[in-house]
Every structure is written in C-alpha cells, then in structure tokens.
Amino acid sequence: MKKLLKTITPLAITLVLGCSKDGTSPSPQNCVDNSQKVTDAVTVYATNPNKANCEAYKNTVRDFFKSCPTYFTGASKQAYEDFLAEPCPN
Q: Can you say how many angstroms the Cα of residue 63 is from the centroid of all Cα atoms in its chain?
C-alpha cells in the first residue's frame, strides 16, 4: 500500500498542478486554441463593429499573447500594448 501511494502521489500532484484551467497559460496548445479564438472574434467584430465586440476581440488578443509569450518581438509587443490601450468606439 505504501508503495502504491508513493507511486500515485507524484502523479496526482503533477496532474493537479500541471492541468491549469486557464486557457492563457503559455503552451503550444493554448496558443493554437487562442489563435482560433482571435480569428473568430475579429470576424464577429468585422461583421458587427460595436463596443462589446471590440472588447471581446481585445480580450481574445490579450489571451492569445499571454498564451504565446515568445510570439512577439519587443517592437510588436509595443504595438500590441498600444492596441490594447486604445479605447473601443461606442
């Protein structure tokens, strides 16, 4: 029984700590998933440009960059920050 616990405990800890429900944690899969969400959000915003869709689009872009931290360079990071700082139109 002790041997079984010694085997299961590290596995359980790894699963609990390694399986984040946050879709913005850096990982290749989250990066791919969030890139699709950006595509979907920009399509919705382009079809119906209003403040709510703009905010949703910005949130998906923010999540995308959080999940893909090595995606951008310093110059594009500044452009990204400038984009997020711009207010959405009413």
A: 3
